[in-house]
Amino acid sequence: MRFNTVTIKDIAKALGLSTSTVSRALRGGYEISEETKKTVTEYAEKINYRPNPIALSLKERRSYSIGIVVCEIANNFFSQAINGMESVAYTAGYNVTITQSHERFDREVLNVEHLASRSVDGLLISLSSESADVSYLKDLHKKGLPIVLFDRVTSEIDTHKVIADNFKGAYDATDYLIKLGHKRIAHFTSSAHLSVTGERLEGYKAALRDHGIPFNEDFVKFCGHGGINQEEIDDATKELLALNERPDAIFIAQDKLSTGCLHAIKKIAPDYFTGIKIAGFTNSNVVDLFNPPITAVRQPAFEMGQAAMELLIHLIESKMPVTEFETRILQTQLIVNNSKY
Amino acid sequence: MRFNTVTIKDIAKALGLSTSTVSRALRGGYEISEETKKTVTEYAEKINYRPNPIALSLKERRSYSIGIVVCEIANNFFSQAINGMESVAYTAGYNVTITQSHERFDREVLNVEHLASRSVDGLLISLSSESADVSYLKDLHKKGLPIVLFDRVTSEIDTHKVIADNFKGAYDATDYLIKLGHKRIAHFTSSAHLSVTGERLEGYKAALRDHGIPFNEDFVKFCGHGGINQEEIDDATKELLALNERPDAIFIAQDKLSTGCLHAIKKIAPDYFTGIKIAGFTNSNVVDLFNPPITAVRQPAFEMGQAAMELLIHLIESKMPVTEFETRILQTQLIVNNSKY
DNA sequence: ATCGTGTTCGGGAACGATTGCACAAAAATA
DNA sequence: TATTTTTGTGCAATCGTTCCCGAACACGAT
């Protein structure tokens, strides 16, 4: 604000009052006469006075703004979740600051620290695929920064969490593939230490087990960078194709991996598409337009964002320190041929 | 920052110095003895001191942060542009704050004003499809807020601008369709008062003219909300299908409209796809997976973001008031069958 | 006449950092 | 030895706002 130099002082000077009186008049302080209040508010209105949020932040040590950290906004799941968060924050009078970690731990730390030093009142974060050590977050949380984890969470931090039912989503997708007659189902997933990776892997295994299909280690491909670089996916695909017994279906655990895998197959072995069935987690709005059709496990991203923001604001505005935390689990949807299955 | 209470005062007290000395020692002031400097910096390091950006913003009336306003982050073009902006800002020591207008004028104004009051050092903005009146931006610009417009610009504001060569992009796409043998080419576009709409429409018209094809008013469909609601697109599609002489190709001027149109046709008249050719502006990373294949006009979004941020930072850091402004025009690419045409 | 008791307002200290100016002590010069 | 210069440090104002205290005044009760 190098401009908008209308301050409370200007009002005070113009009206022959003190800054304290003006401040109280504007805040509706009970100790100010109706008349003064009227004069002040009318004048403030006239000269278009806006309180300086920076000065307020310095004084109040809060900012009415909330920090969001995701790995990529160019990811349908996250952009939808952010929209959900915004919608709740907006009505509650908070602003949001969106940052991206690009799946890198150092960027994540930098973002979080910058947000914290900027006095965000709270933090919504989905961990990067590199984030194995979350002690920096833990410290901040201990110092009193309200945090709500969503999507990629960690048991290291005791706070509210919002996740999709990853186990069930993975189970349903795998189960669907099996019921279509597939028996050799591969699994593409991301970094092994992400919460979602484990949960989805378990769902996949459980579905196999329930149908008496043996689990094959070779069929599981971890792409540590979560689809950030296509090369990783290409390599995994090649490995799969090099197997004696090629898989006849693939279940993919991540949005970017799903499209990445389609690209890879299309590029490396387009004929392989015939007969193979692919199901994967994705919140893309255009899955129904995909040529090798894909069965989508869709997360309620918008609702997850809303829930996370609601929990965070509750945490921020709670008078008492909150000690009971909840993990909200939202159900996924299996989308087959553009309709709910 | 309700925690991280390590301030310059704490250091001063602990070391028996004044705050001014500590400040100067940390800043590397030439007037401080080497010994004191060392003591101070070492102690600051030890207790992990971080200067409070809020206090700095208040004092310096700048924040080393840059505001970005786009209509939707869930749009490939914008998320890619944002990545370009971030990359430049990051190396120059600036942070970015991303906000969304959701194609609404009131949200845009709210975002801009919030950013300005938060002392952003500059603003990068692509106008919403509702933004006909930009006087609020003009005022801010006059007051000294550095602004760079990108993508959807306006001639109302005299400043740096970064756009794609929309005319040529549209011309190339239309020309491509014509050369494939199509003569009845419809045009889907968004709000009429957006700069990009006009430029792309002109490119479309010019290509028709150059090939001696008459311009048909009925073939042009304006979707004012830019693809935010699918209904609008469905209606436009129906109108097109109801024509006596149905178009045999469509050129689409917007990312969301392109996919929206594919959805519409797929839903309303799937058989219509046979023989019809679609070309459209889109920065989707998955166009090659689309079933009704689409010829894409791809904007160099990342580079546009970089250019815009470079120009803005230049504006911010310029000692002299800048009076000469440039409009940087970047070339689009026609992507046919997943490769540059 | 004195003492509460409101009511309405102003003074001034915070919040964290920078910085012009003043001032001391030490060093250099006359 | 006296004076000037250099060097290192502190004081206090500033940014815009809030809020604790206290001041001034009026009014009714004692």
UniProtKB/TrEMBL annotation, chains A, B:
Entry keywords, A to Z: DNA-binding, Transcription, Transcription regulation
Signal peptide from the UniProt entry: none
Tagged with keyword Transcription regulation: yes
Pfam families, per database record: LacI, Peripla_BP_1
GO molecular function: DNA-binding transcription factor activity; transcription cis-regulatory region binding
All copies of domain HTH lacI-type, residue ranges: 6-60
Coiled coil: none
Keyword Cell membrane carried by entry: no
Superkingdom of this protein's organism: Bacteria
PANTHER family named in the record: HTH-TYPE TRANSCRIPTIONAL REGULATOR GALS, LACI-RELATED TRANSCRIPTIONAL REPRESSOR
Organism of provenance: Arcticibacter pallidicorallinus
Protein name: LacI family transcriptional regulator
